[in-house]
């Protein structure tokens, strides 16, 4: 009995320790910073497109009025939007421009924590006002904006980080002698502040992606058209989404079936194969290829790029630093130690990488 008791005790302790390592290990916010930059740019572009017919979509007398929205069978009173309370076209444009400014500031990382909250609220407001024009792109934008609020998204590759580095350089310059100013500046440049919140934000995004891909694969597997390859043929034959004429694929049904089966396998196995370090690059490469194919052949470039941005969450911070900062991989895939400055002393801190009626021209521009 003691042996059994010891087993369950060790099992419980190991589970708790693994859970804490997965969620609460401080990590370099480099990956979160890159996700913020790319997400902000995507939010800015996809919402800038609304400017071509802003009053038609969001005005009081637009394509679908607020009163008509409330009568939709799937509409919930909880689906709020500040556009419901805007009657003036001038005020509508002012709010729209203000939202674009928020997305731009989020992209460059100025007042990042505040902008991330405002960006999420703005994104949801746009979506809920025109739910009839909602696509997977809008859902992905909202997902990315949501998780940016969780962590310090402006702690790396941002104006906020640059301002902090300048302030730290000034403090170090005043605290050291003239001959050490250059060394102090380089130390400030290399300063990395690990963050538990950054890890949690990235983990939530990773987990959301795994769930999304898995259920997408399950949904496809329930349809016969994905097993016989007709789903791919129907997609490339749809004139609304067709970028290139690939109807000749009908003569190569084996290739259509291979693409369909490969998509199902990738989506259903993503949640398992993306975690091991050896298989992760292959899975991410497959996901990127799939979404680039969606963009190139079905014309849904923004959706494909938004999903690729979400997949960046699985790029380890040390890889980001290696590529963008041209830094040697001090904390490579097998070790995550980075030097930190604390009170003038160097310490070793462990950082683990976490790993209807609507104009079709405008909506297609946002795909």
Description:
There is one protein chain. The protein is mainly alpha-helical and about 375 residues long. The chain folds into three domains: about 25-155, no CATH class; about 160-195 and about 320-365, no CATH class; about 205-315, no CATH class. It is built from 17 helices and two strands. The chain has helices at about 1-25, 30-50, 55-60, 65-70, 90-110, 110-130, 135-150, 160-175, 180-190, 195-220, 225-230, 230-235, 255-275, 280-300, 300-310, 315-325, 360-365, and strands spanning about 335-340, 345-350. Strands 1-2 form a two-stranded antiparallel ribbon. Helix 2 (about 30-50) crosses helix 16.
Compact description:
With 367 residues, this protein is mainly alpha-helical. The protein contains 17 helices and two strands.
Characteristics of this structure?
367 residues, mainly alpha, 2 strands, 63% helix, globular
Largest beta-sheet details? 2 strands, antiparallel
Pairing-aware structural class of the strands and helices? mainly alpha
Quantity of strands, as a count: 2
Tell me roughly what share of residues is in helical segments.
Answer: 55-70%
Uncertain runs with pLDDT below 50, 5 residues or more? 334-364
Number of helical runs? 17
The 3D shape can be described as globular
Give the radius of gyration.
24 Å
Q: Hey, roughly how much beta strand do the residues contain?
A: under 5%
| First and last CA, distance | 61 Å
Summed up, the domain count is: 3
Overall mean pLDDT: 85
Q: What pattern of helices and strands is seen along the backbone?
A: HHHHHHHHHHHHHHHHEEH
């Amino acid at each position: 009995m003691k042996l059994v008791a010891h087993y369950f005790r060790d099992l419980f302790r190991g589970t708790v320790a693994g859970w804490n390592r997965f969620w609460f290990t401080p990590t370099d916010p480099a990956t979160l910073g890159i996700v913020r930059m790319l997400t902000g740019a995507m939010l800015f572009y996809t919402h800038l497109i609304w400017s071509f017919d802003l009053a038609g979509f969001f005005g009081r007398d637009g394509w679908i009025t607020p009163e008509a929205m409330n009568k939709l069978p799937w509409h919930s009173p909880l689906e709020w939007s500040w556009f419901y309370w805007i009657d003036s076209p001038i005020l509508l444009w002012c709010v729209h421009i203000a939202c674009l400014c928020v997305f731009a500031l989020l992209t460059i990382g100025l007042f990042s924590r505040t902008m991330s909250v405002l960006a999420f609220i703005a994104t949801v407001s746009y979506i809920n006002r025109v739910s009839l024009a909602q696509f997977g792109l809008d859902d992905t934008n909202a997902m990315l904006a949501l998780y940016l609020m969780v962590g310090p998204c402006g702690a790396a590759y941002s104006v906020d980080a640059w301002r902090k580095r300048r302030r730290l350089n000034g403090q170090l310059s005043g605290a050291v002698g003239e001959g050490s100013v250059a060394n102090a500046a380089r130390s400030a440049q290399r300063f990395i502040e690990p963050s538990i919140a950054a890890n949690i934000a990235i983990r939530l995004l990773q987990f959301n992606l795994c769930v999304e891909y898995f259920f997408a694969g399950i949904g496809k597997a329930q349809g016969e058209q994905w097993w016989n390859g007709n789903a791919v043929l129907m997609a490339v034959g749809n004139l609304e989404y067709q970028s290139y004429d690939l109807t000749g694929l009908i003569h190569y049904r084996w290739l259509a079936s291979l693409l369909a089966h490969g998509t199902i396998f990738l989506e259903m196995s993503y949640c398992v194969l993306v975690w091991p370090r050896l298989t992760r690059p292959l899975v991410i490469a497959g996901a990127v290829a799939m979404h680039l194919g969606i963009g190139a052949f079905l014309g849904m470039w923004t959706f494909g790029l938004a999903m690729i941005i979400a997949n960046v969450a699985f790029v380890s911070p040390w890889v980001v630093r290696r590529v963008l900062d041209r830094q040697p991989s001090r904390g490579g895939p097998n070790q995550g130690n980075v030097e930190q400055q604390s009170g003038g002393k160097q310490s070793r801190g462990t950082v683990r990488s976490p790993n209807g009626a609507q104009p079709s021209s405008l909506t297609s521009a946002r795909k």
